Amino acid sequence: MLKLLACLFMLLDHIGFYFYDVLPPFPAMLLRTVGRLAFPIFAWYIARGFGRTRSLFKYFLRMGAFAVVSEVIIRFANNLAGYHLPGTNVLVTFSLAIVMLAGYQMARYSWRDLVAGLRPVAAADGTLPVKPVSRFNVRVNIGGIELDPRIGVPLGIVMILLSIIAALWLKPDYGVYGLLTVLFFHLAIDRQDETDWERRIWLLLVPLNIVYMIYRIITDPGITAWAVVQLFSLLSIPLCLKHIKEKRPPAWARYGFYVFYPIHILLLVLLHRLMTGV
Question: How many Cβ atoms sit within 10 Å of the Cβ of residue 119?
Fold first, then answer.
């Protein structure tokens, strides 16, 4: 249900974007404002999906494949509409976010893959003496990552940095802000009691969005209004928390978004051309 709502918000956002020259200014702005709710919900699903997936590599490959296919379709649609937008689509953001989360997990938890030492205690009075032996080393995996920290920590940091560099280079929708949104959702719920999720999510995402707003205003004063409008995305947090107990959707529902995303953009562009004749 939540993902269907996110798709609806995304549809409204893109109607406001592609039909800005057909709609009056206020309805177009309203549609785009409501559309701000879509991205955090999808970011929430990526963060939760990362913790649930049985194969992180397959998760990344699947997201990457849909990102490539979507890029071809969306570029074709934007060319039809006469838009030559820089950057790439939001599935590229989510693909890079998976890399960032994997790097974070590796950097944070590989050091917990330790070796514990066991040594026999001295015999108690009245028992047979124990022959002195060397200590027994036992591998204790607390973090769930079986990797030497001397490799895991630097490798994890490199993965995080590469995901950020790739986002700056490829310029996907929401960019580094999008990566951090997924990461902060993950930080809020990773190995945390469910009753503490809400407090941690607000604590992390509110400052992130305020900093992002200030950054956009400073770097491009011409989009001050849009920078402020982005704060409306925080209203999606209660929706995410309300659906914590939501059952995992069937495969068709999980993958339906990846098909809906590029196709609805293409259909909107075709409908716009049909209505305007251009």
Answer: 10
25 has pLDDT over 70: yes
- Phi, psi torsion values for 117, nearest 5 degrees: -105, 130
Q: Is residue 122 pLDDT above 80, yes or no?
A: no
Residue 54 in this model has a pLDDT that exceeds 90: no
Q: Hey, what amino acid is at 218? A: I
* Start-to-end Cα distance in the chain: 36
Other C-beta atoms closer than 10 Å to the C-beta of 221 total: 9
Identify the helix (H) or strand (E) that includes residue 141. Answer: strand 136-141
- Between 8-12, 40-44, 239-243, the lowest mean confidence (pLDDT) is in 239-243
Supply 19's token pair: 């039909």
Q: How many residues in the chain?
A: 278
Q: Which residues pair with 136 in a beta bridge?
A: 118
- Structural domain boundaries, residue 270: 2-276
Rounded CA separation 113/137 (Å): 13
Write down the pTM of the prediction: 0.83
pLDDT at 186: 95
CA-to-CA dists, residue 239 to 22, 38, 231, 235, angstroms: 31, 11, 15, 8
Structurally, how many domains does the chain consist of?
Answer: 1
In Å, how far are 17, 27, 32, 184, 256 from 23, measured between CA atoms?
10, 7, 12, 36, 28
The phi-psi region of residue 153 (left if phi > 0; otherwise alpha if psi is between -120 and 50; otherwise beta) is alpha
- The dihedral built from the CA positions of residue 72, 77, 80 and 82, taken in this order, carries a sign that is negative
Q: What are phi and psi of 124, to 5 degrees?
A: -75, 160
